[in-house]
Design brief:
The protein is of the alpha/beta class. The chain has a single domain, classed as SPOUT methyltransferase, trefoil knot domain (Alpha/beta knot, 3-Layer(aba) Sandwich). The strands form two sheets. A seven-stranded parallel sheet has the order 5-4-1-8-6-9-7, sandwiched between helices. It has a two-stranded antiparallel ribbon with strand order 2-3. A hairpin with a 5-residue loop joins strand 2 and strand 3. The longest helix has 15 residues.
Length: 189
């Protein structure tokens, strides 16, 4: 498997909206950390950033990572150790951007995801072609709660089309949306 030094993933929890449209900070769901790490590793992302402003929540995620990196989990399930090796825990989006800039020498272009459609949405095939050019790094942003705030969405250079099925229902878990998105952008064709 080839690691893509130009595609990174961020699981965001701050500047999200709740079902009433109010801007909130969401909580970390630990299964998301495991599963999105596994998807990021499977599809060769350069790294995964779990982004949360709470020091306590970041410490919890670090505890989970340590368990699989060097604790009992490291010998119990080495595959999980490998998957969580892509994980970095940061305070905010800007800290993730700085990590990527230090690693690649460039600030990444931001790719937002959303379950909502709009005129400015880009197809997966077009985005896949942009990533394949490898001219700059990209950070693929996934929101939690009811999605990213307008302020956060406005920072994106690209917004992907929503993942739609054959029904009106459109409320995937973030870990499922991440796996589908990474497959569409990085999977074998």
């Amino acid at each position: 498997m080839t690691i893509s030094p130009n595609l990174f993933v961020a699981l965001l929890h701050d500047q999200m909206v709740d079902k009433t449209g109010k801007m909130v900070t969401t909580s970390v769901t630990l299964i998301d950390v495991h599963d999105i790490s596994r998807s990021s590793r499977t599809f060769g992302a350069g790294g995964l950033f779990v982004v949360h402003p709470s020091q306590t929540i970041r410490a919890l995620v670090r505890t989970i990572k340590t368990h699989w990196d060097s604790g009992f989990g490291a010998t119990y399930n080495p595959n999980r150790t490998d998957a969580l090796g892509v994980l970095s825990i940061v305070t905010d989006l800007d800290e993730a951007l700085l990590h990527i800039e230090r690693r690649t020498g460039q600030l990444p272009k931001l790719i937002a995801t959303s379950a909502r459609d709009g005129d400015d949405r880009i197809s997966y095939d077009t985005m896949r072609t942009e990533i394949a050019k490898r001219e700059s790094p990209f950070l693929l942003m996934f929101g939690t709660g009811w999605g990213m705030s307008d302020e956060l969405m406005a920072r994106a250079n690209y917004v992907l089309k929503p993942i739609n099925g054959p029904t009106e229902y459109n409320h995937l878990s973030v870990r499922a949306a991440c796996a589908i998105t990474l497959d569409r952008l990085m999977g074998e064709r």
